Every structure is written in C-alpha cells, then in structure tokens.
Amino acid sequence: MLLRKVLILSTELLILLSVRSWLANGVASPLTYEVTDRITGNPLLCDRCPPGTFLRARCSSTKKSDCAPCPQGSFTELWNYIGRCLRCAVCGRNQVVKKECTPISDCQCECKPGYFYSQDYDMCVRHSECPSGQGVLTKGTPERDTVCGMCSVGTFSDISSTDQICTQHKSCSAAGLQLVLKGAIWHDNLCANCTDLKDGAEYLKEIVPAFFIHHKIKMKRLRRVVNKLPSDNVRKQEGTLELSFSELHSRIRSWVSSATPMQIRQLPAILIKLRASHTGEKLQKKLNRIDKNLLRLCQEMIGR
C-alpha cells in the first residue's frame, strides 16, 4: 500500500515537471491528455484540470474529468491531471513570506530584514557591517549584501554599521575654535577653545572608543586591557572572561565617560605593557600631537 502511494506521488511529480518543462521551452500546455478507457480499452482524450484544482476522478467514455478545488494550504499553478494539489512551501530559517500561497501559486519567501540570500551558503545570512573607516555605499537588500567603501578625504566613520555613510569632518574654524587634531577616516576633527582650555587628554578621550573599534585588538588582549583600566572606584568591575567584543567596547565607553585626564594619559602605557605596543604607541602619538598643538595654537592666540 505504501509503495503504491509512493509510485502515485512520483508519477504526479513527473507529470508536473513535464508540464513545467513544456512551458519553459515555449511549448503550450495541452488542455487534454490521453488515457485508456478502463471499460472498453479504447484510448480517450480527457480534459486537464485548470490551475487551482486537481483531478479528483479521471474521465471515462461516459463522463468528463472531475476536477476539485485545492484545499487550503495547497496549490496547482498549471493545467494538470495530478491526483492531489501540491503542499504550500514553508519559509526557512531567517526568511519571511513575501507572497502568501494561493490556490494557483506557491508562497514566495525572502530573507528577513538584516539578511540576504548567500549562494555560497544557500541560506539567508546577516548583512555585512562596514567597519570603521568605511561607509555604506549601498544598503543590503534581501537579495544582496551591503556594499562598503573607504571614506574619502575629509570624511570619517567611527563605528561598524550596516547603514551609516561616511560623515564630513566638522569645521573647527567655522565654530571659532582651533584644530588640535586633524580627523582621520575613523575619527572626527578635534577642536579646542583656547579661552576655555582643557587638558589634552580631555580632547583625546573623545576618540578613545573609536580608537579601540578601529584598531582591532584580539579578544583575549582586549579583555586584559579592560581589566587593567585605571579607576577611582574601590570596587572593581565584574570579570570580563565571558564578555563579547561589543560588551568589551561598551565597558571601554563607560570607563572613558568618567575617566580623569590622568587616567586617560595612562592608557597608552597600559597597552604597551600588555604587548599591544604598536597600538599603544599610536595612541601616545595622538596625545602628543594634541598637547603640542594646544601649546602652539593657544600661545599664538594669547600673543596676538
């Protein structure tokens, strides 16, 4: 009995595929099909069933084909003589229904927001984030991934994002301020007011979170850095062993918001001590440049 059902379903599938093939090759699907009459043994031409129906009983010498509507949750999209309608598809992982199933067409699925179909993986995967220093040229769609591009001269992006474009560096002079650190592709210009002068580390802290995002430090070392951040709090923060990259960067942002200038100035030395010498030296150079420009620019203003 089971074998017979399998054979029937296989035959129906072959019929459906044949009809699809005719259509794909530009051949009109015939509205009849030939059978042998069970009583007389003579050949008969029976009517096919229209889309949205299936063949409940085939024709004979005395009656026409008996077609019935597809039950809910099933469909036929072609003229056919199959014994049951095809079951509507179910959307897969990270997919949503683009078009509902109807009696004459299967449902259509597409990747849900934030995902696109990858042929390499044959599934919907997350849109790529453009790293800091790059902006989004074309936002991702259900069919295509995000397209990123390096920020051009005079623009920057200080986060990883699937939708942020590069932003123009702010103009210090337009606001009546002094440029103490020229912007890069991963951070904005830093401006100072010489009449309300602050410690150079106060300006540096504006770009410290972006610095750690752009200069990718390995997870293990970044955890050690976060554990070594100087703090006035007697009670230490909770351990970092289980924290993800985003959580570690959140810790850094939180620390920067309350850190004193002296604590900010200790940061390059902490990185160097934890064997991130190249990164620590880069941060120290930024601080040195700010200090030097503050001294030069503000002295020039006072001397005018």
Features:
two-stranded antiparallel ribbon, Death Domain, Fas, Tumor Necrosis Factor Receptor, subunit A, domain 2, disordered N terminus, two-stranded antiparallel sheet, alpha+beta, single chain, 16 strands
Explain the layout of strands and helices.
Blueprint: H1 2-24, E1 32-36, E2 43-47, E3 53-57, E4 66-69, E5 74-75, E6 86-87, E7 95-99, E8 108-111, E9 115-118, E10 123-126, E11 134-138, E12 147-150, E13 155-156, E14 167-168, E15 178-181, E16 190-192, H2 200-204, H3 208-214, H4 219-228, H5 245-258, H6 261-273, H7 277-303
Antiparallel strand pairs: 1-2, 3-4, 5-6, 7-8, 9-10, 11-12, 13-14, 15-16
Helix pairs in contact: 3-5, 4-5, 6-7
Summarize the structure.
With 304 residues, the chain is an alpha+beta fold.
Describe the model:
Among the domains are: 32-91, Tumor Necrosis Factor Receptor, subunit A, domain 2 (Ribbon); 95-125, no CATH class; 177-231 and 240-303, Death Domain, Fas (Orthogonal Bundle). The protein has seven helices and 16 strands. It has helices at residues 2-24, 200-204, 208-214, 219-228, 245-258, 261-273, 277-303; strands at 32-36, 43-47, 53-57, 66-69, 74-75, 86-87, 95-99, 108-111, 115-118, 123-126, 134-138, 147-150, 155-156, 167-168, 178-181, 190-192. Strands 1-2 form a two-stranded antiparallel sheet. Helix 3 (208-214) packs antiparallel against helix 5 (245-258) and helix 4 (219-228) packs parallel to helix 5. The radius of gyration is 34 Å and the shape is rod-shaped. InterPro entries: Death_3_fish, TNFR/NGFR_Cys_rich_reg, TNFRSF_decoy_receptor. It comes from Poecilia mexicana. This is TNFR-Cys domain-containing protein.
